[in-house]
Specification:
Layout (H helix, E strand, L loop, with lengths): L3 E7 L8 E3 L1 E4 L11 E5 L30 E5 L4 E6 L2 E6 L4 H11 L10 E6 L13 E5 H11 L12 E4 L13 E4 L2 E10 L17 H9 L3 E10 L1 E4 L4 E3 L2
Parallel strand pairs: 9-10
Antiparallel strand pairs: 1-2, 1-10, 3-14, 4-8, 5-6, 6-7, 9-13, 11-12, 11-15, 12-13
């Protein structure tokens, strides 16, 4: 079976919601549009609102410490510049993420499902022209559904692939074949990517996206069963273009 793009996901606010789309237009050197554009700085974050720029993941609220964040879903309306958030324990909330007041309203909305974290959410932030990716460069993540099924097989029951919070979910590769792509260029649809490195995972993957509860010690499972704690790879866009669900993945070099 040829490898192909099965699903496309974006996460407008880092660690706070997910949205499936059927196509996306990518630009060279940039992250996915509307993906991790905003983030929630916690009360001890070093994010500088006067000189905003990329900050490491530890400066933001994440599901690693607040597993109920995994349950958030969202729906964007780029034309009206709004995001609507959904969580089973909170009323739906629609905000203009560019509006400071709406950002403060989101902090209040997310606070009850963040309680218990060592560091509570404090500010709704963004950096001009720079997404809050987990890498120090503007990246897009690729997840291999065959590798996900390998994890399910060792665990002995189904898991939602959404716990990995990937952008491009591909099928048709062999389990863990994505790691063989590191250092190569691949094409999906009209876009070309450089596969840069493996995605080292954190405890956010312990949390079930349906229940918001930690139900797997994922890092221990990966270490014991596969000899590493990685899942997926990070890529850079080296040539932009439109990418649509169902597009083939082709290794170029």
């Amino acid at each position: 079976m040829s490898a192909y793009l099965a699903q496309i996901w974006r996460h407008p606010v880092k660690a706070h919601g997910r949205e499936r789309v059927d196509m996306v237009t990518l630009e060279e050197g940039r992250a996915m549009p509307w993906d991790r554009v905003w983030a929630v700085a916690h009360e001890r974050s070093c994010f500088d609102v006067e000189r905003p720029g990329w900050n490491p993941p530890g400066d933001f609220s994440r599901g690693a410490s607040s597993p109920r964040l995994q349950q958030i879903e969202c729906m964007t309306d780029p034309a009206y510049r709004t995001i609507t958030f959904f969580h089973p324990d909170r009323p739906p909330l629609t905000i203009d993420p560019h509006d400071h007041g709406d950002g403060c309203e989101f902090i209040q909305w997310v606070m009850p499902i963040s309680l218990g974290a060592k560091l509570l959410p404090s500010r709704f932030v963004r950096a001009p022209d720079e997404a809050m990716t987990d890498t120090g460069y503007q990246s897009i993540s690729l997840m291999n559904l065959a590798s996900h099924r390998a994890v399910e097989g060792r665990l002995g029951h189904p898991l939602s692939p959404l716990r990995w919070r990937g952008n491009l979910l591909v099928d048709g590769l062999a389990p863990w074949e994505e790691f063989d792509l590191i250092g190569n260029r691949v094409q999906i649809g009209a876009a070309e990517f450089e596969v840069v490195e493996a995605d080292a995972r954190c405890r956010m993957t312990d949390a079930n996206p349906e229940t918001g509860r930690r139900d797997v010690d994922m890092l221990q499972l990966l270490h014991d069963e596969f000899g590493h704690t990685n899942f997926g790879v990070y890529m850079k866009v080296v040539s932009g273009g439109q990418v649509i669900e169902g597009d083939r993945l082709t290794v170029l070099s």
